Batch of 3 targets.
Target 1
Amino acid sequence: MDGTTPISELHPLSPLTADEILQAVGIVRNAIEDGAGAKIEMVELAEPDKAVVRQHSPGDPIKREAWINIYHTDRPGVLRCRVSLSEDALVSQKHYPDASPMIAPVEFMEIENAVKADPRFIAACKRRGIDDLSLVTVDPWSAGNFGIEEEQGRRISHVFCWVRNEENDHQYAHPIDGLNATADINTGEILDVRDEGDIPIPGGEWNYDRRYQKVVREDLRPIDVVQPEGVSFTLEGHRLKWHDWELQIGFNAREGLTLHDISIGGRPILYRASIAEMMVPYGSPDGRHPRKNVFDVGEYGIGRLVNSLELGCDCLGAIQYLDASLNGRDGEVETIKNAICLHEEDMGIMWKHYDFRLDTTEVRRARRMVISTIATVGNYEYGYYWYLHMDGMIEFEIKATGVINTTACMPGQPGPYGVEVVPGVLGQIHQHTFCARLDMAVDGDANTAVECNTEAEPMGPENPYGNAYRMIETPLTNELAAARKADQGTHRYWKFKSANKTGLTGQPTAYKLIPTSVVTPYISPEGPSGRRAGYTFKDLWVTAFDPDQRFPAGEFVNGCDGSDGINAYVAGDRDLVGKDLVAWHTFGLHHIPRPEDFPVQPCITCGFKLMPVGFFDDSNVRDLPWDKNIASCHAS
Ligand code: CO
C-alpha cells in the first residue's frame, strides 16, 4: 500500500494503493457531471467475486475495481460509483437521495471552529466565567435521527463541551454541562446553541500526560521479547502465512482491519471477517444526553481513525507493520504509517500431561499470531486484536481504553444514570455494542448453522439418579429462526458445519462460535436510536451470503432511519441449510464507569471465539517441538 506496488504483485483482495485511490478519484472527477467539485466520502476496493479470488494464482493479471462515494455540500444524497482501475473508466453510478455521508475527521475540526466562533456560544462561555475560548474544546457527535423538522435532509452534528485549565490540561476533567450546539456539517451553520442549567464546571486537576506526572515508578525492570532467529511468519504483500494458517489482510476506511480467505492447513474457515458496526448508546435522559448514541463504524469510518503505531510502545517484540492508504475528503490520499501490527506472542502452555505411573512429563508451549490496529474515536481508543492460535482457534478481542466521556454533576449528587468518578465529574452508564460480520466457509461455502444447548433430563426411570444431562442441537434452518439470543443458562453456542465434509467419526467438520461478551440492550427498539440499532437486539443473526449486505445497521448509517440493515436482510427469511452463510455476532461492553476509569481508563476487554469442533480429527498440536527455551533462567 505504499503507492508503488506493481499491479501484478497485488492479490485481488489487496487494499487499494495510494495510486489506485488517486486514480479512482480522477476517473470520477472527469466522468461525472459536477464531479470536479465533489467531496469524496470513501474510496474502497470493490471486492471481486469469490470465484475470481479463489482462481487467482500469484502473478496472475487482475482486474481492479473500486467503489467511490461522492457528495456535494449544497445538496443531500450520495452518489455511489463503481470504477474500473484496470480500464480507467466509470463502470456504474447510483444516486442515494436520502443517504448522508459519514463525518470526516477534518469536519470534526471545522465544526469545533464554527461553534466556537458563534456569538451565542461565546456569550454562554462568558456567562460561565470562560473568557479564553482557546481553552474550550467542542466534541462533535453524529446526531442520529430524532425526527426534528429543521434537521431533515441536512448533515447534522451536535456537540458537547469541555474546558482546559491550561494549554495541556486534560479537557475531560472539566465538562461544561448543559452547553450544547447543533451544527450543519456541510454549511458550518450553527442551528442552535443551548445553555441550560448551572452545574459548576469541576476544576480539579486530573491529568495523565507525562508532563504532569510528578512520580514515576522505578521498580520495573525491562521485559524484552526477543526472537533471535527471526519471526515464524511470512508476509507477501498483504498475504500472511504463519503456522498452518494463511490469510489475506485487508483494510478500508469504514471497517478498518478486515481479514479474508482464512484457512488452516489449506482448508477454508472464513471467507471474510470484520467488525462491521459498533454502536454506543448512553443511558441518561437528561438534557441533550439522549442524543449520545453513535455508530462509530458507519457514521465516522473507524479505519480513518486508526493510529500510527509505535514500536516498543504499542507493540512489543519483533514487529511487522503494514501502512494503510485512505482517501481524504477532497480526494487526496492520507497514508497511515504502521496502521496494522503483526507479531507473535507466547501464550503459555498449549498442553501438558504428567503420567504419574511412568513418571514422564510432556509439555508444549503455545504461541499466537496477533493482527491488530488501534483507533481513536474522540475520547476513546479501541484496540482490535485478532488472534490465530495453533490449535485452530480464532479469537477476537477489543481493548477499550482512552477516556470515558464525562459530564458534570453537583458534587455528591451523581443521579441515577452515572457514576461520580471524581468530585463533580460524572461518567454516564453506556454500552459499546459491536457486530462482527463473519462470512463462514467451513471446509467450503456450503455450511449449516445449528444451535447447541445443554439440558438436564428429568429424574425418572431413564435417569434414576438425576445426573443425566446432554447437549441438544437445533438446526437454524432459515433466517428468521436464526436470529438468536445467547443463553448462559444452557451454555448456548452456535456451530457452523460443513455440508460436504466429515471427520474421522463421520460427523460434519465444524467451527463453533462462542459468545463470551454478550450485552443486553437497554435502549427501546421503538426509540429513535433503537430503531436504527436493530442488530443489537439479537446476539446472533445468520444470513444467506449476499455481497451487497455488508453492514448490520445499513449501507448508509449517518442520520439513517433504520429501514436498511439486518432486519431488512432477514426479511426474506431465506433458507440456510447447506448454503453460503454469513454469521453476524453482536457482542460488547456494558460499561458502568468506575472511579478507576478516570482520568484515563485501563483497558477493558470483550470479544468472541471461533473454535474448531471436529474440524480436526484429533488435538492436532502433538507435533509442537519440546525444546526448552534456553533464554529462560532462574530469577534469583
Ligand atoms: Co465505555
Target 2
Amino acid sequence: MRVLKYAILGLLDKGSLSGYDMTSRFKAELGQFWSAKHSQIYPELKKLTDEGFIEFKTVIQGSKLEKKMYSITLEGKRELHEWLTAFKPVPDTVKDEFMLKAYFISAMDLEEAKALFADQLSKRKEKAAFLKKKLEELKEEAGQSISFRSPHFGHYLLLTRALERENGYCSWLLAALEMLADDQPPA
Ligand code: FER
C-alpha cells in the first residue's frame, strides 16, 4: 500500500502547500515517526495529481521563480477519509536489531551482554528524556486542555505512545540487567 499517499493527503487536508513546504513538513513534523525522502515525495505528488486527489496552481514567487501550490480535492478528501476510518489488522512487529541480539544473548560472555544491555539502556533513557521534553513543550504550547478538538491532539497521541514505548523498553532492559547481575557462575 502507498502509505506516503495518505501522509501527503493528510498534510494537504490541513492546508495548501508547495512541494518544498511538503518536504519541510515531513522533516519537521512527521519525520520522527514517518520519514520520507524528497525523491519519494515528488513522484507521489505527480501520481496524486494524475489521479485527481490533489491539484496545483502555479504561482509566481519573487520576480520570476515559479512554484506549484498543491491542495487537496474533494475526491482526495474522500480518499483520505476512507483510509482513516478503515479498520486494519495489527501489522507484523517492527524489526528491532537489538531484539535479535537479545535472542542470541547466550552466544556472548556475561560481561559482554551486560555492557550491551547497559549501552542500550542509556540510549533508550536518552530517547525517553527527549520525548518527555517534547511532550512538556507541547503541553505548554497547547495550554490546559488537550482533547479531541485541540489541533495538537494528534501530536500528543503520538508522543505519549512513543514515551510509553521507550519507558517500557527501559523497564525491560533494567529487569534484564538485574538478572544478569544475579547470574551465578556454573559450579
Ligand atoms: C515528535 C518527536 C518524536 C513526534 C514523534 C516523535 C509526532 C517520535 C515518535 C516515535 O518514536 O514513535 O515531535 O511527533
Target 3
Amino acid sequence: MAVMPVRKIGDPVLRSKAQPVKEINTKTENLVENLKSTLVELEGLGLAANQIGVLQRVFVIKRNNGEMLEFINPEILQKEGNKIDREGCLSVPEREGPVPRAEKVKLRYQTLTDEEVEAVFSDLEARVIQHELDHLDGVLFVDKVIDLPTASY
Ligand code: ZN
C-alpha cells in the first residue's frame, strides 16, 4: 500500500479515457489499495485511477459510514432526479463550483472478489460516484460547472 501523488489539472492523463479492466488480479488489488490509502491520506470522498496516473476503469469512494468501496468497470444503469450542489476535486486545487448531478444512480460494477454488483446510491454518494465516473472518461467537474443565475432587482 502506498500513498501516490495526485495528478493535477493540466496533466493529460486526466483528459484520457480509462480502459476496462479485463482481468481482476494482483495488479488490480494493488491499484485499489493505492487508491484507498491515497484517499484516506488526503481526506477526500472519492478517487479515480486516472488521478494517480493509471488508465483503468477503477475508482474508490468513502461511504457516509466511513467504509471504503471499490468500483471496477462501473456503469450507470439508471439516473433519477437532478440537484445542483458545490463540488471540488483533489486534482483541481482551490476551486469549487455548482454542478448539476442526478440525485440517485443505479450502478453495475465489479468488486475485487470479481463479484458483479448492482446497487443504488443516492445524495452525496451518488454525486461522488458520478464525479469519479467522469474522471474515467477524461471529464473534470470544471467542465460541468454552471453559472447560477444572479438575482435581479
Ligand atoms: Zn475529482
